[in-house]
Amino acid sequence: MGARIAGAALSGALVAVAFPPYDLWPLAPVGVALLTLLCTGLRVRHAAVLGLVHGLATFLPLISWMTVIGPDAWVLLSLLEASFLALLGAVLPAALRLPGWPVWVACLWVAEEAARSRLPFGGFPWGRLAFAETAAPFTPYAGWGGAPLVTFVTALSGALLAAALLHVRTARRSAGLLLVAALAVPGAGLLLPTGAGEGRRVTVALVQGGVPGEGMAFLGERKQVLRNHVDATTRLAQDVRTRRVDAPDLVIWPENASDIDPFTDPSAMRLIDGAVRNIGVPVLVGAVLDGPGPDHIRNTGIVWDPATGPGDRYVKRHPVPFGEYIPFRDQLSGIIERLDQIPRDFFAGSEPGNLSVGPAEVGDVICFEVAYDGLVRDIASCCCGCPVPL
Predict the structure, then answer these.
(1) Residue 198, pLDDT score
(2) Which tens digit of pLDDT belongs to each residue from 43-93?
(3) Alpha carbons 292 and 346: distance in angstroms, whole number
(4) What's the CATH class of domain 204-379?
(5) 20: CB partners within 8 A, 6+ apart
(6) What Å distances lie between residue 347 and 67, 294, 299, 300, CA to CA?
(7) Is the dihedral of CA 77, 78, 84, 90 positive or negative?
(8) What SS3 string covers 5-47?
(9) Cβ distance 15 to 56 under 8 Å?
(10) Backbone angles phi, psi at 318, to 5 degrees
(11) With contact defined as beta carbons under 8 Å apart, do 317 and 298 qualify?
């Protein structure tokens, strides 16, 4: 069992390095194949242990950025996410006894990701297999079935590889056919038509002004984050005027680029308005707005026009638990002092982020929202207005 546990750790590590910054995307199906092989013929509890080890080996490196909040938060979230992989591992031995089991294995991966994308507190969909395949032969499947289909074909390719290895000693012809099938899945992705058709090309400038210091220290330096983005936009405008960069049609600032509500702070309003007028094109400004009421704030994207000022806006619909709002605040605030850094909960918006920013129709999703299929489905549409499958 010790060798299998080591193998499960290796399988999880292979999946982890398939993601940025390594981007070794072929290793995701290889990790799936290895975990599948290791769970073959095991009892439920032993396979669950392998799934848990695989999950920890994936998530501990994948969400190591959580250490800025605290090593305890990092480890606890990794354990929570790995528990879903433990459930997948527990079911794998039974699935491997079914006819056509590679398809069932792929379905289990989709189901596991669907569960942890919803539970608890709305879920945490980070680390889905699909997100390791953003520039790979599997990627074109996204246009036909979104992230769930990309996960399905990635896991299917890995399961077919595992099936080929299981047959290599007893049925070499079958093993060869299964190997061809495993390679044909990504190969078929390269043949799928992609693209949304012809349209006007739009030049977009992305401004990242950064925050002062490291970790959560920036929370104590009000308005500095805004000044950083104003300064970065001023430098961009200068580069445009000297023709060092192409003139953008629109500019995008990240979430919380203005850590001060410009509608209640005149100086913040002047800073943003000056930066937008300087660059001379509409800017999608990420800002924290006060309200509703004294106990809430809103994570917002605001369309800011150089001539008419602030206009349409989008309010983030899926605030992050323990990051943007505190579940069980009354019970936990006296126990975990760090929660005091989030004195007000973010209020959840209700409308999709379909915004007109200059010449472009922009679908605004903020930070982790990009990983939630339903939120992206609401704003993604083809030219005829039909929803894109996700």
Answers:
(1) 63
(2) 999 999 999 999 999 999 999 988 887 888 899 999 999 999 999 999 999
(3) 10
(4) alpha beta
(5) none
(6) 26, 11, 8, 10
(7) negative
(8) HHHHHHHHHHHHCCCCCCCCCCHHHHHHHHHHHHHCCCCHHHH
(9) no
(10) -130, 75
(11) no
Terminal Cα distance for the chain, rounded? 39
What is the Cα–Cα distance from 45 to 161, expressed in whole angstroms?
A: 25
- The identity of residue 150, as a single letter, is V
Show contacts of 26-30: CB within 8 Å, 24+ apart. Answer: 26/136, 28/129, 28/132, 28/133, 28/154, 28/158, 29/154, 29/155, 29/157, 29/158, 29/161, 29/182, 30/158, 30/161
The reported pTM is: 0.87
- What's the pLDDT score for residue 382? 41
Backbone angles phi, psi at 213, to 5 degrees: 75, -165
**Tokens 């039909």 belong to residue:** 386
Q: At what angle do helices 101-116 and 27-39 cross, to 10 degrees?
A: 110
| C-alpha to C-alpha distance for 142 and 124, rounded to whole angstroms | 20
The DSSP bridge partners found for residue 304 are: 283, 310
Question: What amino acid is encoded at 4 in this protein?
Answer: R
Q: Residue 12 corresponds to which tokens in the numbers above?
A: 């999880």
Under the phi-then-psi rule, with left for phi > 0, alpha for psi from -120 to 50, and beta for the rest, what region is 224?
Answer: alpha
Which residues of the chain are modeled with pLDDT < 50?
218, 382-390
Active centre residues (catalytic): 255, 316, 367
* Residue 100 token pair: 């056509």
Q: Which tokens hold the place of 301?
A: 């994207």
d(CA 161, CA 36): 10
